[in-house]
Design brief:
Blueprint: H1 2-9, E1 16-20, H2 24-38, H3 44-47, E2 48-52, H4 58-66, E3 75-80, H5 98-106, E4 112-118, H6 128-136, E5 138-141, H7 147-160, E6 164-165, H8 167-176, H9 181-194, E7 200-201, H10 203-209, H11 214-226, H12 230-242, H13 247-254
Parallel strand pairs: 1-4, 1-5, 2-3, 3-4, 6-7
Helix pairs in contact: 5-6, 7-8, 8-10, 11-12, 11-13
Length: 264
């Protein structure tokens, strides 16, 4: 993933990209980097197209890709929801002539970059078209990372931006953001801005600056109550109210009673 972003920054573009997964941060960040890398400020209005394949036939997308750039070197075409590559059921009645796409995949034009975004966990590997596009395209994996993958991801992003963050700080960031990559990345952006001069992110910085997830606040509230820390518990309680959360309702959600076994 990071290697593909570096290539995009160096303007080493692939003619076809296929983004697969449901992690919005990776999808949006890849789109943002492609727009910045492929198009100049004056090109966006003329050489950028964004299609929803639930509403637009694939033939129109291919036709757009084959259109010569206007006042620029390249065109960028993004096509989301390619249901013809998945097993997902869709309410769309759009019919796609995928043979047109097959022909294009075999011989894409040099002046266009075509990006497919499949917001699903996996494609239908049985389909001939799926096999062809995976063979011809540069694949970008946008799956939701597990904890170990997320730690590597955050470390890689830190290193990519020339910051140091040790494992304890990374683990704490993951914990406080509830393992949500988009939330963790937003917090990491804030941390890097705050520590721009030192370029070292410590666990103490995480504690001071990172906004806790709802789950973290509920468990911290429980800890304060057990410790009879009234002022601390009230502080968290009022913070939750400011966030338009219902502490009592959420307390019951996250702190369910342990079931009692039947006695003989």
């Amino acid at each position: 993933m990071i290697s593909e972003w570096k290539k995009i920054e160096k303007k080493e573009f692939a003619p076809i990209y296929l983004i697969i997964g449901t992690e919005d941060y990776i999808i949006n960040e890849t789109k943002k980097r492609l727009v910045a890398g492929v198009l100049g400020e004056e090109d966006t209005d003329f050489n950028y197209a964004n299609f929803d394949l639930d509403e637009t036939a694939i033939e129109q997308v291919v036709e757009e890709a084959e259109t010569i750039p206007f006042f620029g070197d390249r065109r960028l075409i993004i096509a989301s929801n390619p249901s013809f590559l998945t097993t997902e059921k869709t309410k769309s009645k759009m019919e796609h002539r995928t043979t047109r796409l097959e022909d294009y995949l075999k011989e894409p034009v040099e002046y266009s970059i075509l990006v497919f975004i499949a917001h699903v966990d996996k494609l239908d590997e049985r389909k001939k078209l799926t096999k062809l596009i995976k063979k011809q395209a540069t694949i970008i994996d946008a799956k939701r990372p597990n904890e170990a993958e997320m730690q590597k991801w955050l470390q890689a992003i830190s290193n990519f931006n020339e910051f140091k963050m040790d494992n304890s700080a990374t683990d704490r960031l993951i914990e406080l953001t509830g393992g949500q990559l988009t939330t963790a990345m937003n917090e990491l952006d804030k941390l890097m801005l705050y520590k721009l001069e030192e370029r070292v992110i410590l666990s103490s910085d995480i504690e001071s600056l990172v906004v806790r997830s709802l789950e973290q606040n509920i468990f911290l509230l429980l800890d304060k109550m057990i410790a009879l820390d009234v002022s601390g518990a009230l502080s968290i309680y009022y913070d939750l109210l400011k966030q338009k959360e219902e502490p009592i309702k959420n307390f019951g959600t996250y702190c369910k009673p342990v079931p009692i076994a039947d006695s003989d």
